[in-house]
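Ops channel
N.P.: pipeline sanity check, posting one input/output pair.
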C-alpha cells in the first residue's frame, strides 16, 4: 500500500472545503479528511479496543488500529462525552510514536474526523512533524474544523505558504481560506503568480471570499477551462474541470460578488454546460436580487 498523500482520497467533511484526489485536486475543491489505504479493512472492534491496541507495547501494527479508528470515528460511533478522554489518549500515543510516522499519520486523520477543538494541540504539533503526510493531514484537519473563530496562532500555517512542497502550500492556502484569516490575504495574493497552476487556482478561489480584484483573471481562466480530451492540453478531465468551476461558483455565491458576471453569463448560456451552466444561472439570479 502507499501512504503518500499524492495518492490519497479526500473525503468532504465541511462545506468550506471539499475533496477529490492528488495535489491538483486539493485545489479543485479545497482540503479535507484523508484516508490513505487502498483497501477497506473490516473489524468488529469498537474504538476502545482499537485505542487499547495502540497503547499496547506488544501490539505490532499500530497504524492499522489507527486507521480502523478513523473509520469508526467517521461513522460517528464515539459518544460525545467520551471524546475528550479519547483525544487525550490519542495525544499520548502520537507523542510516543516518534519512530512510527504511519501511526502518527492516521492518528491525525482520526483526530480530524472528530472535528473537536480539543484536538488542536496535537494537530498543531502535526504541522511541525517531520513526515509530510502528517503535516498535510494536520493542515486539512484544521481546515475542516467548523469555521467559528479558532484560538490558534495562524503564523505556523502562514509560514507553510512558503513551502517548496506544492501540496502542503495548497493545503495551507485552503485552510487559511476556510477560516478567512485576514492577515493571510496579502500573502495568498502573492501566490497568484506562482509557477504551479494548482497553487494559483487555490489562491484565486480563496481570494473570492475577500473579493480581491487581483484574483479575477485567474478565476476567469478557471471558468473558461475545457476538458483535456487527448491529454495534450491542461491535463484536466471533464470531472475535474466541472469540480473546479462549481467550487468557484459556490464561493462567488457565498459572498455575492459581482466581478465575474460576464463569465457567469457565458457559462449560463452554454448548451452543454450541465451542472456548471445551471449553477451559473442560479448564481446570476441571486446576484440580481
Amino acid at each position: 500500500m502507499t501512504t503518500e498523500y499524492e495518492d490519497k482520497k479526500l473525503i468532504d467533511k465541511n462545506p468550506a472545503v471539499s475533496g477529490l484526489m492528488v495535489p491538483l485536486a486539493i485545489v479543485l475543491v479545497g482540503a479535507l479528511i484523508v484516508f490513505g489505504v487502498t483497501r477497506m479493512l473490516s473489524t468488529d472492534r469498537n474504538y476502545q479496543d482499537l485505542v487499547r491496541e495502540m497503547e499496547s507495547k506488544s501490539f505490532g501494527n499500530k497504524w492499522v488500529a489507527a486507521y480502523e479508528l478513523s473509520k469508526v470515528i467517521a461513522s460517528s460511533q464515539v459518544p460525545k462525552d467520551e471524546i475528550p478522554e479519547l483525544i487525550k489518549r490519542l495525544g499520548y500515543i502520537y507523542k510516543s510514536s516518534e519512530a512510527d510516522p504511519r501511526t502518527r499519520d492516521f492518528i491525525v486523520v482520526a483526530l480530524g474526523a472528530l472535528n473537536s477543538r480539543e484536538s488542536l494541540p496535537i494537530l498543531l504539533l502535526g504541522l511541525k512533524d517531520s513526515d509530510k503526510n502528517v503535516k498535510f493531514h494536520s493542515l486539512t484537519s484544521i481546515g475542516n474544523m467548523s469555521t467559528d473563530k479558532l484560538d490558534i496562532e495562524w503564523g505556523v500555517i502562514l509560514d507553510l505558504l512558503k513551502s517548496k512542497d506544492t501540496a502542503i502550500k495548497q493545503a495551507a492556502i485552503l485552510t487559511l481560506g476556510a477560516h478567512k484569516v485576514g492577515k493571510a490575504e496579502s500573502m495568498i495574493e502573492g501566490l497568484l503568480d506562482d509557477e504551479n497552476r494548482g497553487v494559483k487556482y487555490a489562491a484565486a478561489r480563496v481570494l473570492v471570499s475577500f473579493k480581491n480584484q487581483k484574483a479575477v483573471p485567474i478565476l476567469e481562466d478557471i471558468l473558461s477551462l475545457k476538458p483535456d480530451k487527448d491529454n495534450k492540453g491542461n491535463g484536466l478531465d471533464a470531472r475535474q474541470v466541472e469540480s473546479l468551476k462549481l467550487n468557484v461558483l459556490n464561493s462567488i455565491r457565498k459572498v455575492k460578488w459581482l466581478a465575474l458576471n460576464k463569465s457567469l453569463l457565458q457559462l449560463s448560456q452554454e448548451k452543454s454546460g450541465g451542472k456548471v451552466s445551471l449553477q451559473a444561472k442560479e448564481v446570476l439570479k441571486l446576484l440580481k436580487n
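N.P.: looks fine end to end. The chain has two domains: 5-179, 213-289.
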